[in-house]
Amino acid sequence: MxxxxxxxxxxxxxxxxxxxxxxxxxxxxxxVAKGQFRLPGCAADMGLPDMTLEEAAQAGVKTVVVxxxxxxxxxxxxxxxxxAEALAMGFxxxxxxxxxLRNEPDLKAAARENGRTLHDVxxxxxxxxxxxxxxxxxxxxxxxxxxxxxxxxxxxxAMDREMNxxxxxxxFRATGQTGILITGAGVPxxxxxxxxxxxxxxxxxxxxxPDHWDQIEGQGSLFHPSYSGVTLALIHGGQPDALVMCHExxxxxxxxxxxxxxxxLEQLRDTALPLAxxxxxxVKIVGVSVNTKALGEDEAMRCLEEIEARLGxxxxxxxxxxxxxxxxxxxxI
Amino acid sequence: MxxxxxxxxxxxxxxxxxxxxxxxxxxxxxxVAKGQFRLPGCAADMGLPDMTLEEAAQAGVKTVVVxxxxxxxxxxxxxxxxxAEALAMGFxxxxxxxxxLRNEPDLKAAARENGRTLHDVxxxxxxxxxxxxxxxxxxxxxxxxxxxxxxxxxxxxAMDREMNxxxxxxxFRATGQTGILITGAGVPxxxxxxxxxxxxxxxxxxxxxPDHWDQIEGQGSLFHPSYSGVTLALIHGGQPDALVMCHExxxxxxxxxxxxxxxxLEQLRDTALPLAxxxxxxVKIVGVSVNTKALGEDEAMRCLEEIEARLGxxxxxxxxxxxxxxxxxxxxI
Lengths: 333, 333
Hints:
- The structure is a homodimer.
- By secondary structure, chain A is an alpha/beta fold.
- Chain A contains twelve helices and eleven strands.
- Chain A has helices at residues 20-28, 53-58, 77-88, 105-114, 152-165, 177-183, 197-204, 228-238, 265-277, 297-311, 318-321, 324-330, and strands at residues 6-11, 33-38, 63-66, 92-95, 118-120, 139-145, 169-173, 212-216, 242-247, 284-290, 315-316.
- In chain A, the strands form two sheets. The first copy, chain A, has a six-stranded parallel beta sheet with strand order 7-8-6-9-10-11, with helices on both faces.
- In chain A, helix 1 crosses helix 6 (177-183) and helix 7 packs across helix 8 (228-238).
- Chain A is globular, with a radius of gyration of 20 Å.
- The interface between A and B is large, with 43 and 42 residues.
C-alpha cells in the first residue's frame, strides 16, 4: 500500500501526454494529489499547486509519485537529484517506470539510509497463491475489450465513481501500473508469473459484503494474441457477476498488430460468456462502453444508438454521457 | 540446451512414482540415458546400468539429471554430496525441482569452482519477446485437454515418435519441466512472466520447413480456473494448425478443484476452436486422445468407440493402441 497524500512529480514532461499517469491520478483520485513538482521545461500542468519538497512536507505529503514517463530508457540525473532529496526528507517514492527505481544505486542507497520505501508498481510484492476457484461473497464487475487500450480502466473507474456517488458499496481494483498509482494498491498483472495470475486476481478481489461491488480493471483482450492469456486469467480469477464490453469503433486493427482485425462485439460476447460461466454460471453482460473520442457529437450518438439497438444492451460512452446506465444495469444482479 | 548424454540420478526414491521424471526420459528419449545412479534404499529402477560417477564419465555422460522428486521440501545432504562430487568431476547438473539447485550455496559454489552449469529447468533462461502473432511457416499441432494432467504431454510425445518412425519431419516442443528434461530444451511456461507467455511459445516454435510439424506440449486447460490463462497463451502463441483433444473418462472433477466438474469434449471443441481461429483461421481438431488407464480392455475399447461415434473424430488411447491414427489425421493439413 502506497502512503497518501501524494506530490505528483511531472519532471520535464515534453508534452501533456507524457504525464498521463499524473493525469489519471488527478482525474480519478484528486483528493490524494496535494500538489505538483515541475522541473524547468515541463510542458504538463495538472492545475495543482506547484510545490517545493518543503512545501509538500508541510502539506502532509507522504509519497512523491513519478507521474511522467521517462525518455530514452534512462532516469535522468535531474530527476534523480529531486527524488534522492525527497527520500532524504522522509518521503517515499513511487513509480510505474520500465526502469525500476530500485535499479538506480543512488536512489536505493538514499532509501536505505533514510528508511524510506521505493515503490516500483510494475513489480509484484506479494507471493500470490494459485487460484482455487472457490465462490466468494460480494459482487464483481469486469470490463473486457475487443482490443487492448480501449477504455477498460476508464470504464471501471467511471462506474466505481458513479456507485460511490450513489452511496453504493464499490471498490476499484487496479490490475495495471496507472490504476495502482491512482488507488495506491493493486496487482501488476502483466508482471505476475503465469501460474499465479488467476490467484493474484482472487487475492485482489476477496470475499466481501453481499452488496459490495469490485470494479475490476480489465487487461488485454481475449482476441489479442500477445496478451489473451492475461485476460482469461482475469476472467477466471475475477469470477465476475457482470461483464461490460468495451470498444473503439474507429480502430482498424488490433493494437500493435497491423495484420489482425478487431472482433465484433457479438464475437466478444459469444467468446467471453461461456468462458466466464466456468467460474460463475450466472454471469451476465450488462452493457457496452464505447470510446467515441474520435467521433463528432452526432456521429458518436448515432454510433451508441446503433450498437444499443444491435446488441440490446445499454450502451454509453462514460466520458461523454457518464456511466449511470451501466450502474443501473447492475441493479438486478 | 542441456548437454547429453545423461546419467539419471534416482536418489533414494521411496517408490517408482517419485522417479517419474527419470521414467519419462527413459521412455521417451532412451538414447540419451546412459545409466542410473541410485542411493541406498532407492525403490525405483529404470532398467538402466547402475553407474558410479567414474563409470558415467567413461561412458561419455555430460549431465547428471535429477530424475526424482525430493521429499519434505529440502535437497538432502546425501543428494548434495553426490551432486557436488559430480560437479567437481566435470558434469553439469540438471533438475526440475521446486527447490532450485542454484539456491543451495554448496552446489552453487561447486559449479562456479568447476566451471559447470546448474540447469534449474523450472526457471526461464531467455528474455522472451512479446508475441507478434505473425504467421510462421511449418505446421504445428497442440494437445488441449478437458483438464490438467490428462495425457497431453504423452500424446504429443507419442505423435512425435510415430512421425519420426514414418520418416516425417517432427519436433516435440516441451513447455513443462519433465518435457524439458526429456528433450534437453524448451520453455517452462508456468514460470514465465504473464506478458511474455505467448511470445515464449512463438520463440519455441519458430518458422520451419513447410512439411515440418511441431508437436507442442499442452499445459492446463481452458476450463481450469487456476491455469486457463497459460493454456490460452499456448493456443495464441503456438498458432496451431491442428488440435488434439485429450480426455480422461473416469475423472469426476477438475484436478485440485473438487467443486468443478469437467467440461464435455463438445464444450472443449466449441470453446477452443473459435479462440484458435484468431491466430489461424484454418485450424482443425484432428482427433481425440483418451487416457483409458483406469478402464479394463473391453471397457476402454467401448469408450473409444463411443467417443469416436459421438464426435466423428479419430479417437485413440496412444498408450494402448498407438498414435498412428492421430498422425494419419494430420496428413490432409
